[in-house]
Amino acid sequence: MPRPKIVLAGFGQPIVDLYYWLESRFDILGVIPDYHRRAKFPFFYEFLESKQLPILDFQRANELQAEAIIVYNYNKIIPVEQVRAPFLLNIHMGLLPTYRGNNANSWAILNGDYTVGYTLHAINDKLDDGDIYYKFGYEIQPNQTYFHAKQAMKFDMEENLALKIDSILHGKIQAQSQQGASFMYACPLMPEDGIIADWNRPTQDFIGRNMVFARPLGTGFKLKYNDTLYEITQLSVIPGFMTSKGVPGAVVLITAQGAVWIKTADTAIAIESLTLDGQEILPSALFKIGQRL
């Protein structure tokens, strides 16, 4: 049986990964990039050349009679009315139907939903609105960050994505409509969103933002003190700390291990280590009990 002919649409390392996940089951005819950035990302074009993958557009994909276009990390509006491939599928980093748009998983976490994942769905004329074929979810544990979820998603894609797409093309997976479902659209996050500006927030808000902004995927979760930005490298909930009123931002305890406990809107948060210019700093070296941040 001949292998299905497909085209990839997207850019950068995600497309490189997608190629290797799919090459054993499909004939990959080429790649449609969202933007042309050879000078900034030479590795991507070197990869295309090494695999003899031509750079295409949607018109050329029509001429090649691709059976499917698989979209991943593509950041332009796709002219769906011009696409002739029977299947136009998107890998959305978020769990539809609820979380649509950019940084969908990050916004799920910021909303207190620690089950994140990706969705394989059809593309229509509305952003992230098409029928759903497959979803993978991962629950982030209290001692983890989004990095751990991203690794789990990548593993699932490597193991299952090719088979799922092949099953879709052969009519073996029934699509699920999103019509009538509740949803929200997420917008891109900025590095400054990872800087604590207001301690009058629930403790879980700080835990969630740390999950999103912690390295290696994020730009770091930070606090500003004496006009210096310190990166928080270890943060935790304090077991047994009662919900209570107080002064948000007040240092309420310094532990024998050098951590500081800082009052939040409802309980308190433990900052156990900081870094500045790559050097680890014990919070007890900076703060004292009763101090307001």
Task: Sum up the structure in keywords.
single chain; 293 residues; alpha/beta; six-stranded mixed β-sheet; 28% strand
Characterise the protein shown here.
By secondary structure, this protein is an alpha/beta fold. It contains six helices and 15 strands. The chain has helices at 13-22, 42-50, 58-63, 104-110, 146-169, 203-213, and strands spanning 5-10, 27-32, 68-72, 87-92, 99-101, 115-122, 132-139, 184-186, 195-196, 222-225, 228-237, 251-254, 260-263, 268-276, 279-281. The strands form three sheets. Strands 9, 10, 11, 12, 13, 14 and 15 form a seven-stranded mixed sheet that branches. The chain has a six-stranded mixed sheet with strand order 2-1-3-4-6-7. A two-stranded parallel sheet has the order 5-8. A hairpin with a 4-residue loop joins β13 and β14. α1 (13-22) crosses α5 (146-169). The N and C termini lie far apart (67 Å). The mean pLDDT is 97.
Q: What value does the average pLDDT take?
A: 97
**How many strands, what sense, and barrel or not for the largest sheet?**
7 strands, mixed
Structural category is alpha/beta
Strand content: 25-35%
Number of helices: 6
> What is the rounded Rg?
23 Å
Morphology: elongated
Outline the low-pLDDT stretches.
none
Q: Give helix % range.
A: 10-25%
How many beta-strand runs? Answer: 15
List the secondary-structure elements in sequence, H or E: EHEHHEEEHEEHEEHEEEEEE
Distance between the termini: 67 Å
